[in-house]
Amino acid sequence: MKNTPIDPFAAEEIQGIVSRVLREVGAEPPLNTDEVLERLKLDLRYFSLTDPSLRQEMVHRAKVGTIGLAKKAVESLFAIAERAQVWGLWLPWQEGSGESTRGRVLISDEAPKLKHRWIKAHEIGHSLIPHHKRYLFGDPEALLSPACQEELEGEANYAAGQLNFMQGRFVEEASDHAMDIKSIQALAKTFGNSYPSTLWRFIEEAHRGEPLVGLVTALPHDHTAAEPCRYCIESPAFRERFGCVTEAELVDALRSYCRYDRRRGPLGTGEVCLEDANGQQHVFHFETWANKYDVLSIGVYDGPVRSSVVVPPGSLRAT
Fold first, then answer.
1. Can you tell me the distance from the alpha carbon of 155 to that of 14, in angstroms, rounded to the nearest whole number?
2. What does the radius of gyration of the chain's CA atoms come to, in whole angstroms?
3. Are 297 and 217 a contacting pair, CB within 8 Å?
4. Looking at the DSSP assignment, which residues form a beta bridge with residue 88?
5. Which positions of the chain have pLDDT values less than 70?
6. How far apart are CA 75 and CA 63, in angstroms?
7. What pLDDT, in 10s, does the model give residues 141-191?
8. Got the DSSP string for 50-62?
9. For residues 82-96, b (16+ Cβ closer than 10 Å) or e, as one string?
10. Contact yes or no for 107/47 (Cβ under 8 A)
11. The CATH number of domain 177-304, selected from 3.30.450, 1.10.3470, 3.20.20, 2.60.40
12. Across the strands, what pairs with 42?
């Protein structure tokens, strides 16, 4: 799955909202997401989609005119959650009731611990973006639209990245690092985020003008993997010039240099030729590394393929 930029006007609005939150928190990295939850009056809870009390609470909180419409909206939301194996939910605050006005961020009791930080930031993102509440408990048909879901999730993911990587703070620090796996590892530790999300942010935001591509994959030689390429992250400069390159081509490129005898640590490096939108060949330096959970690769632009001119013997004569 390739990264898709969100609407630039939405991005600008989200940047402004997140900037205000970060100024209020005033923290050094890594950002304490629990502190953000408290400042936004959001309680953290854990849930199971099979728990009937969760449905009842969501119907109670839905403000869409009638209880029948509220139930329909909630059932639509649960249909999406069950189909997509959702790990997080956001329940808006209740307005005008005598009960607690605090909202809730819910994390599935099946979600891996390593994912909790991102899930919290993602659901905080939903709570910060003004029109998301309208969609959450609004028109069920609109909510079920794949295009609507993709737009809402993309905006929440963008807000989560802005929060967890503290906007310009990450860009500033990342710009001083070399474009390699060691930098991803160091920045992930500094900002307290996962390797895949750090790779994503490093390529998409910190080095926008460089043709960079990143991959989060199964082991390159595992031909039985159900999902050979989980994420393909393109910098804006790469997308403009090399957006025609497919994920399958990139995974094949990894297989050309990665080691068969290792499942963790450095898996190899290699020079890979990719064709741009004009049919010209260019060289990228690729590096792949794996840990227990992820296989990360980064491709850094080196330059155009240099053609050599072969001069037949005897064709040059002294004059």
1. 8
2. 23
3. yes
4. 107
5. 59-84, 94-101, 136-144, 307-319
6. 14
7. 555 577 888 899 999 999 999 999 999 999 999 999 999 999 999 999 999
8. T-HHHHHHHHHH-
9. eeeebbbbbbbbbee
10. yes
11. 3.30.450
12. 103
DSSP E strands in the chain: the ranges are 42-47, 88-91, 103-108, 212-217, 229-234, 265-275, 281-290, 295-304
pLDDT tens-digit readout, 210-234: 999 999 998 888 877 778 899 999 9
Where in the chain are the domains?
8-164, 177-304
pLDDT of residue 64: 46
Amino acid at site 126: H
Strand pairing report for 103-108 and 42-47: parallel
Whole-angstrom Cα distance, residue 92 to residue 42?
9
Q: Which residue has the tokens 């994390």?
A: 107
pLDDT at residue 48 in the model = 86
Q: How big, in percent rounded to 5, are the helix, strand and coil portions of the chain?
A: 45, 20, 35
pLDDT at position 69: 47
pLDDT at position 310, please?
Answer: 53
Residue 183: C-alpha distances to residues 24, 111, 202, 219, 278 (Å): 29, 28, 9, 21, 32
